[in-house]
Amino acid sequence: MNDNLIAIEITGMHKWFGAFHVLKEINLTVNCGERIVICGPSGSGKSTLIRCINRLEEHQRGKIFVNGVELNNDLKRIDEVRAETGMVFQSFNLFPHLTILENCALAPVWVRKLPKAEARLLAMQYLERVHIADQAGKYPGQLSGGQQQRVAIARALCMNPKIMLFDEPTSSLDPEMIKEVLDVMIDLAREGMTMICVTHEMGFARTVADRIIFMDEGQIVEENTPEEFFNNPQHPRTREFLSQILSSQN
Amino acid sequence: MSFVREKYLAQTPPPVMTAGVLGWIRENLFSSPGGVLMTMLGLYVIWIFAPPLIQWSLIDAVWRGEGRGDCLVKGAGACWAFVNAKFGQFIYGRYTIDERWRVDLVFLIGVLTIAPLMIDGLTGKLPGRRFFIAFGLLAYPVISYVLLFGGNFGLTIVETPLWGGLLLTLVVAAGGMAASLPLGILLALGRRSHMPVIRTFSVIFIEVWRGVPLITVLFMASVMLPLFLPAGTNFDKLARVLIGVALFSSAYMAEVVRGGLQAIPRGQYEAASALGLGYWQATALIILPQALRLVIPGIVNTFIGLFKDTTLVLIVGLFDLLGVIQLNFTDANWATPQTAITGYVFAALIFWIFCFGMSRYSLAIENRLNEGTRRA
After folding, report:
1. What is the dihedral of CA B62, B65, B67, B71, to 10 degrees?
2. Could you give the ipTM of this predicted complex?
3. pTM listed for this prediction
4. How far is A84 from chain B (nearest CA, A)?
5. To the nearest whole angstrom, how far is the Cα of B294 from the nearest Cα of chain A?
């Protein structure tokens, strides 16, 4: 029963890049359906943390469980975890040699072993949901940044994941395009998807997040509800960060 | 001093001055003083070299004849009669004359297999493309071997030392190409592997084969290798040469492909992994299609190099197109001052047609593949 409630459990996790200690003593439990926003200054390890969750980065100490599966050197289990965990990157990372539709249908066909026609139907469904079905025949290079990021979200959703990871999804977008991507993410949150977002969009964090995690120098400094986090920050480093980021965003 | 636009301007067509033949000439040949100078220089070079070449190869040339007498006429140009008389040898070498239809049949099946694939490469709309690829890579070599060598189905055996001319050139080149691309891809992947054993093996293999001249490889294959094999094993010389050429060019191909692999951003690997694709799936579906596309010029460059390097098989006693042509210079019946030069020009022409064809074709493929990725 416990497995059904807890999506991610990280205990005493440490990570080093060479001699550099990037993540220190990370403890984090994410329940199913919870929306977590991770923020913090650049270099604080927030991207590395989220990349550890689907093992794009390897951790050296501690334990990470995703959907009840421990991440270790068992490659087969890791591929299983990845298939259940969608990821959206800052730089979109669409496959430039495939059309939008092929980008989305690829993993369902090869990982989920769906028949091609069925995968295409599924892909169209999700492209519809991110309002970009009319571009299905185009190549990624022909779309704007915001459109590409929405396709990337649809591509991840096509795998019907239990958890979605967002690694600064709007950081390389023009202001006009940020909204269209955030709208899609907000829709997703409303539907009850378990989400972990690394983002600087404080407005998004305020409306969507159940919990906000603030990181600095590779550790979790503060963890709170959005209300408490914005109105009554505890740690001095959090207050400093908030005063700077909010003055620039307003 | 404020301004507010009341109506957005509509799109209008560009000015038409740049169109037409005159426009093209003006823009490409006489656009600047330097351009005018280069055009003049180009015309001068053509003026100097073209007339004598045409005179020698076409106007003064001897097209028909029975022997040297016809080409010994005063002021005679190219002795095409020699090429004409020896044409069969140039194509088939010393292949048994009554059995030459088997070679023709192999050529014909080859063309019928490759032509649709080449058209598909340009249009991307061939029904049953997989069948053609599978046939070309798996069935065709077997069929060719059975037909060319014989020994089955009532076909008499034609030993490989009799194979020669263009036939041999194409066998060695096609064998080398078909083997070197997949081997090269595996070696390139191996060299980037995280597993030390595989990486070390790939590095050593590539560096050893790249570090020795092809002539050495051919000598080793034909002279040294039999010494190491158990006595009495008779391992066909052409087969040994084919293996040598394939391994040699796969080392080059590996480095070309590695160049392409290195150009693929890390994000592509990560996106593929994040979707749950395994290593081989990600490599075959995401990485290689992009990497190979980037290095088409390098791949074709290696193919062209390989095609011309086949002439080196002469030194181990196999007679490819150039070898057969040179062999025929010694024919007393055709000993004229023009024989050798005509033969070499003919050989150059044939090699050039094949290599230029490959070059042009690869360009066309590149253009088609780039269509999608280029911003519209």
Report:
1. -20
2. 0.90
3. 0.84
4. 8
5. 11
